[in-house]
UniProtKB/TrEMBL annotation:
UniProt cross-references to InterPro entries, sorted A to Z: Ig-like_fold
Protein name (Swiss-Prot/TrEMBL): Ig-like domain-containing protein
Provenance organism: Paludisphaera mucosa
Chain spans, region Disordered: 51-71
Compositionally biased intervals (Polar residues): 51-60
Amino acid sequence: MRFYKAVVVLGLAIVAGCSGGGGEEDSYSLVPVEGKLTLDGKPLEGASITFNASQGNNPPTDGGDVTGADGTFSAKYRNRSGLAPGTYKITVHQPKAALPGKPAPPDLDPFMMSLAIDAANKKKGPRKTAAIDQPWIYSEIDRTPLSHQVSVGGDVDLVFDLKSTLK
C-alpha cells in the first residue's frame, strides 16, 4: 500500500511540474525599458530597435520594439513588456528595410523582419540601406556604437540619437 501511495504522490508531483505553462522564461522578472529613437535629432518612425543581451546577462532576454510616429519605443521580451536588468548591445534597422536584394513581405511583423535582417547581415556583411546610401552601422551587432546597461528599476527616459553621417 505504501508503494502505491508513493507512486500516486510522485505522479501528482510530475503532473504539477509539467503543467506550469510557459516554462522558466515566463518567470523572469522584467523591468520597463522605454525611450525615443531619433536620427539627426528628428524622431525616427517605424524603425526596429533590438536589445541584444550580452553573454553575461542572466537571464538573456533579447527584445525590442518598432518605433512609433514620434520615435518612441517600449521594449518587449517574448510579447511581455520589459527586459531583464543587464548589459545590451543595441541594433537598429531603418524603416521599410528589406533583406539584401529582396523586398520585405508585406505581412511580416517589422520587429521579426529586423531579426531576419540581423541573421542575413551576419552571413553577407554590410549592406546599403534605402534611406541612407551607406552601410548602416547601427544594424550590425559587431559595429553598432549603441549599448545600454538596463538598471534593476528599469529605464523609461532613454534617448538614442543616431547620426546619418556615422559610417
